[in-house]
Amino acid sequence: MSVSSSGAGGVVPGTEAPRRFRPRLRYELMSCGLTGHELVGTDAGELRSEDAIFARPDPATGLRWYRCLRCDAWVLLAPPDHPTRDCPPEREQIELPLRGRPLRDKYVLRLIALDRVVHFLILGALAIAVFVFLHDRTQLRGSFYKVFIDLQGAFGGPTSASHSTILEDLRKAFALKGSTLFTLGLIAAGYAVLEGVEAVGLWFRKRWAEYLTFVATALLLGPEVYELTGRITVFKVLALLINIAIVAYRLFGLRGGGQAERAEIERDAGWEALERALPPAPPAGAIPSRDSTSPASPAAPAGM
Ligand SMILES: [Zn+2]
C-alpha cells in the first residue's frame, strides 16, 4: 500500500502491520484520541440503506454498527432510547472530518504555528525591552554602571571574557543613537506582529498564512546563513534547519495551489474515499433489519 492511501481508501489506520524501525504516526487515530470518533446517526430513530456507509443495524443483537468517518473504526452501540430525528442527515448536511494527507498537513501547520508563537513572544519581549530602554536610558545609565561595577567587584575584577563581552555590548547599546534604537524597536515589533499573524493563520489552516510564512521564512534564510558565518551556535543551526524544513515543506505543498488542495481533500477525505474504504460486507450480519417492522426493506450498502 502506498503511504498516501492510509485512511483514505486502502489501509484502515492502525490495522496495518507495524514497521520495525520507522514508526508511523496515524493522525486519524491521534485526532480520534483527542476529540473522539466522528459518528453520524447515533440520534436517529431509523437507519436507511443509503446510511450503510456509516451506520448499519445488527439484526442478531438489535444493536447498531457506527463507522467513524475519520478513522474507519466500527463501533457497536445501542440505538437511541429517545431519537431526536427520524433518520441520519443527508450527505450534503454532513461535514466530513479531515483524513489522510490533509489531516497530516493540519498537524504540520499547527506545529509551525507553535514555532511562530515562540518567535512572536521573543520578538515582542525584545521590542518592549528596546522601547523601555529607550525611554529610561538616562536613568538606567547611572544605575547600570553602578550595578556593573558592583558585579565586577563581586566576581573579582574584569578578568572574565564573557563579562567584558556583555559590558561591551551594553556600552554599545548605551552609545546607540535614539533614532537607531527606535528603528530597531520598530523592526522587532513589526516582525513580532508578522509572526503572530502567521501563527493565527496557520493554526486555522488559512491559505494566505501559508504563502505569508513561505515568503517570510524564505526571505530570512539569507540572513540566517550569513549569521552562521560568524559565531556558530546550536540554537542558530537549529533555527536554520527548522526554517529550511518549513520552506521545503511549503514548497512542495504549494505547488498545486488551492485547487489541487481541494482535490486532495476530496480524494482523501471525501465521500468517495469513504466508499473506497468501505468493507465489502456488513461487519456483522446482513443489512436487512429489524424483523419486518420496516416496510422499505434495505438493500445492499449504497455505493457498492
Ligand atoms: Zn475514529
Describe this structure in words.
The protein has 304 residues and is mainly α. It folds into two domains: 7-96 and 270-276, no CATH class; 108-260, no CATH class. It has nine helices and three strands. It has helices spanning 27-35, 100-135, 137-154, 161-175, 178-203, 207-229, 234-253, 257-269, 271-276, and strands at residues 55-58, 63-67, 74-77. A three-stranded antiparallel β-sheet has the order 1-2-3, with no helix packed on it. The chain is elongated and about 85 Å long. The model is unreliable at 1-9 and 289-304 (pLDDT under 50). The chain binds zinc ion (ZN). Zinc ion binds at residues 32, 37, 68, 70-71, 73.
| Count of DSSP-assigned helices | 9
Could you tell me the radius of gyration in angstroms? 29 Å
- Residue windows where pLDDT falls under 50 for at least 5 positions: 1-9, 289-304
Elements, N to C (H/E): HEEEHHHHHHHH
Mean pLDDT: 79
How much helix is in the residues? 40-55%
DSSP E strands, number: 3
Would you tell me the structural class of the helices and strands?
A: mainly alpha
- Total individual domains: 2
Which small-molecule ligands are present, each listed once? zinc ion
Distance between the termini: 21 Å
The fraction of residues in strands falls at under 5%
User: How are the strands of the biggest sheet laid out side by side?
Assistant: 1-2-3
